[in-house]
């Protein structure tokens, strides 16, 4: 582990490109295994159903084939969703998965309605209550076991990748298992002479499947309409920000979801006298803290504020540096101050401009001159509404020459 130990983060953090193609590979693998199962079961059920002349098995087989369709939707969406951001989609393609989840959720609702419809039909036409043979039973059992297995496998991957789309597809697999269970229950019921058992079971199940479909479709529609993260998640993000040195307040924290990722932008208040570069450093620290808070945030925009811009008077419309220097030169002509030689810093705070001036070393040692000058400058600015305080500093070694 020589040398690698100090850089454990290098091993862990894949680039976004690698992460998204790895994610796609995982989704593809679990979905293709599921699709192969669906195909096999579908063929098997239709074949045996045809040979054993069992209507319900053939119908069950068709259900397995319909699951194949959802597998392909998932593959398509995962492929497109993992593409790099481009000119058309600068934030990436994560919402392909969201759209797929809406489709899968809606189709789950239809599956639920279908199950209920079948069973209600059977209740009203008792002659349709079937008594399938041992073959049908064996296949139904095989189907239950294999589909329940693929459900759990898919769900595990879905949770790990935070993919709602895979969760929806896992439920599709499970509905297939469930409809086979209904067949088994129905057969058992018929043997016991309880002819209506499967129909009643089916109605209960269809309600469950329908509600799950509705929840998934609804939450994905929320994401498509830019619904933000939940309050708990935002609280975790706020705390992560406030732990950063130099971050004094957080306001205007906004978020939205993008497939399995989230985007955040936030205003962070810092000490108003920091340099630009220190403010930027705090912003970078905040950005990293948010990304590492494990809320799935991959894109952060931090706006650094020298004061709370929701409450403080606005600095809009105050003159910029060029204009300020012109005004100062005019106001101070009488004082004999030539601004070109000085390092002038402007602080835009509370709707006014505060001025710091660093004097060249010629002034150093003549403290009373500096104080007199400061008084003079303050006086000449007092009737200009845009300006606040003026501070003069004697600078050892001309800082001006250093910067040019």
Concise summary:
The chain is built from twelve helices and six strands. With 404 residues, it is of the alpha/beta class. The strands form two sheets. The chain has a three-stranded mixed β-sheet with strand order 1-2-3, with helices on one face. A three-stranded mixed β-sheet has the order 4-5-6, covered by helices on one side.
> Average pLDDT value?
79
Which descriptor suits the 3D outline? Answer: rod-shaped
Q: Tell me the CATH superfamily of the largest domain.
A: Cation efflux protein transmembrane domain
- Annotated CATH architecture of the largest domain: Up-down Bundle
> What is the terminal separation in angstroms?
47 Å
- Tell me about the largest β-sheet: 3 strands, mixed
Can you put this structure into words, describing what you see?
This protein is of the alpha/beta class. It folds into 3 domains: 4-224, Alpha-lytic protease prodomain-like; 231-305, Alpha-Beta Plaits, CATH 3.30.70; 321-403, Alpha-Beta Plaits (2-Layer Sandwich), CATH 3.30.70. Helix content is 60%, strand content 13%. The protein has helices spanning 8-12, 16-51, 55-81, 95-124, 134-161, 164-192, 197-224, 231-242, 276-291, 321-332, 367-381, 399-403; strands at 249-258, 261-269, 297-305, 343-349, 352-359, 387-394. The model is unreliable at 3-12 and 398-404 (pLDDT under 50).
């Amino acid at each position: 582990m020589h040398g690698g130990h100090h850089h454990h983060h290098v091993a862990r953090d894949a680039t976004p490109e690698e992460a998204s193609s790895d994610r796609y590979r995982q989704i593809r693998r679990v979905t293709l295994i599921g699709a192969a199962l669906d195909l096999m079961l579908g063929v098997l059920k239709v074949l045996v159903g045809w040979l054993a002349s069992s209507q319900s098995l053939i119908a069950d087989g068709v259900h397995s084939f319909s699951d194949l369709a959802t597998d392909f939707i998932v593959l398509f969406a995962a492929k497109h969703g993992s593409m790099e951001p481009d000119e058309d989609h600068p934030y990436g393609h994560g919402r392909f998965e969201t759209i797929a989840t809406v489709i899968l959720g809606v189709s789950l609702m239809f599956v639920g309605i279908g199950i209920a419809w079948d069973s209600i039909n059977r209740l009203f036409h008792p002659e349709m209550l079937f008594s399938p043979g041992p073959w049908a039973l064996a296949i139904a059992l095989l189907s239950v076991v294999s589909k329940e297995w693929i459900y759990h496998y898919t769900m595990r991957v879905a949770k790990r990748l935070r993919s709602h789309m895979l969760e929806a597809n896992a439920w599709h697999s499970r509905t297939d298992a469930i409809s086979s269970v209904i067949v088994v229950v129905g057969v058992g019921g018929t043997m016991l002479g309880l002819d209506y058992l499967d129909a009643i079971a089916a109605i209960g199940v269809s309600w469950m499947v329908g509600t799950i479909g509705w929840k998934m479709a609804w939450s994905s529609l929320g994401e498509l309409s830019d619904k933000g993260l939940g309050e708990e998640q935002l609280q975790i993000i706020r705390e992560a920000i406030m732990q950063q040195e130099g971050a004094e307040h957080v306001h205007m924290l906004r978020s939205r979801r993008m497939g399995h990722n989230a985007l955040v932008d936030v205003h962070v208040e810092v000490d108003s006298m920091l340099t630009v570069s220190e403010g930027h450093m705090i912003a970078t620290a905040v950005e990293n803290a948010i990304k590492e808070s494990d809320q799935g945030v991959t894109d952060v925009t931090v706006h650094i504020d020298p004061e709370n811009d929701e409450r403080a008077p606005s600095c809009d419309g105050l003159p910029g540096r060029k204009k300020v220097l012109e005004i100062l030169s005019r106001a101070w002509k009488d004082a004999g101050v030539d601004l070109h030689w000085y390092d002038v810093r402007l602080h835009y705070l509370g709707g006014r401009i505060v001025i710091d001036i660093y004097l060249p070393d010629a002034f150093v040692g003549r403290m009373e001159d500096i104080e007199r000058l400061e008084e003079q400058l303050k006086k000449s600015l007092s009737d200009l509404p845009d300006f606040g305080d003026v501070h003069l500093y004697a600078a050892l070694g001309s800082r001006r020459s250093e910067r040019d």
